């Protein structure tokens, strides 16, 4: 699994606010699920070595069958590194019977001041081959758009 997927976006909020939204349970539930999904955090431990479990549910699973069940993706995420307000490194493992979704994907959220805002770059490495690259990058971009909307107070 040598593939790397990425997306970035400038968000009109300071790096500290973006960082806080990455480590707040209710915030994460609100903005992380990409378009067409909703999310629920089952457990939460926001510290290095901690993590969370998120259940992502497809609003219409007809064309997007889930990895864990027909309508869901369940992912266990560990916090590998927390560097306020610059970086969050996560290790994500999907709950799936299909071996093409097996393995640990690393998600690095890099935050850099950009004028009055923050450039957020998400880099996913060791992406399981069962995850379509175009769909994954679209999903990351959708989460970033949700994060921008959440922090900027826009729809």
Automatic annotation (TrEMBL):
Q: Which residues form a coiled coil?
A: none
Describe the location of the Activator of Hsp90 ATPase homologue 1/2-like C-terminal domain by residue ranges.
12-152
Show the InterPro entries listed in the entry: ASHA1/2-like_C, START-like_dom_sf
Q: Which domain of life is it from?
A: Bacteria
In the record, the note on similarity to other proteins reads:
Belongs to the AHA1 family.
The protein depicted here goes by the name: SRPBCC family protein
């Amino acid at each position: 699994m040598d593939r790397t997927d990425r997306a970035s976006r400038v968000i009109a909020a300071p790096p500290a606010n973006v960082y806080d939204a990455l480590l707040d349970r209710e915030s994460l539930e609100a903005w992380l699920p990409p378009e067409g999904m909703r999310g629920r955090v089952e457990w939460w431990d926001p510290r290095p070595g901690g993590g969370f479990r998120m259940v992502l549910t497809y609003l219409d699973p007809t064309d997007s069958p889930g990895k864990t069940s027909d309508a869901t993706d369940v992912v266990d995420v560990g916090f590998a590194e927390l560097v306020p307000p610059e970086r969050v490194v996560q290790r994500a493992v999907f709950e799936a019977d299909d071996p093409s979704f097996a393995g640990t994907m690393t998600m690095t959220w890099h935050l850099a001041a950009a004028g009055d805002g923050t450039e957020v770059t998400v880099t996913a490495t060791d992406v399981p081959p069962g995850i379509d690259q175009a769909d994954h990058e679209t999903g990351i971009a959708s989460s970033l758009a949700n994060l921008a909307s959440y922090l900027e107070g826009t729809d």
